[in-house]
Amino acid sequence: MSTTPRLALATVTVLIAVGVAGCSSDSGSGKTSSDSSAGNKAASGSAAPLPGTTPSGTPSGTAAGKPSGTPDVIPAGPGPQGSYTVQKQPAPGTCSYRYTAAKEPLPDLTCTPGATNPKVTQATLKTTICRSGYTADIRPSTNITGREKTANAASYGYKGSLKDAEYDHLISLQLGGDPNDPRNLWVQPPSPGHKDGAGPNNPKDAVESKLKAAICAGKTDLAKAQKAIVKDWTTALSALGLKDQKPAEKDPKAEEGE
Known about the structure:
There is one protein chain. The chain is mainly alpha-helical. Helices cover 30% and strands 6% of the residues. It has seven helices and six strands. It has a two-stranded antiparallel ribbon with strand order 1-2. A hairpin with a 5-residue loop joins strand 3 and strand 4. The longest helix is centred in the N-terminal third of the chain and has 20 residues, at 4-23. It is globular and about 40 Å long. The N and C termini lie far apart (111 Å).
């Protein structure tokens, strides 16, 4: 008998044995090589970041926990209430004032991003902010806002006299801001030139009155005005092309700056 068939049979036997040995190296582990690689990545801490964050875990669109700019969508608050309750404020020392080049105060947009009154829309202007007496009807009492103001001063680390600071609606009531959402209220320090003990001197109030007049006259729309005042109240009028706008007529039922 020729030896060639025997050699071929031996070669096949050796190849089969080698193949079986190669497949048994992970026998019983239940993992493929790709499973092992994924496990190594997870162990090294390189798992995918949570939605809305960077790989390091920092919220996307922020730097060191601070917002990169005005939010695209301003949150809506609960709106006017028949009876208001004192709202919890940010923890003491967690909010930081910003200042313009002219030293005018601006809020921390993480703590105070603004909040809108859902009852005020472009379609309801005539029955809400453009109606005399509307803001007086929805304003919380000082029994509520006084306690909130004290707590919010601690949030911002404000050390001055509370009589000289205004507990300000970032989006004022006359611009469709929520009456008592803590995201829409901040202790606003006095502007430059203020005299101690003279009470608030707030040029932001005049800006708000002019924006209301422009909204009710159809010169700008509600949402644009709200975004402009949140971004920077000192530039809101110029950003909307309203530098020459006259203030709204004084509402005898409203407080200054509502």
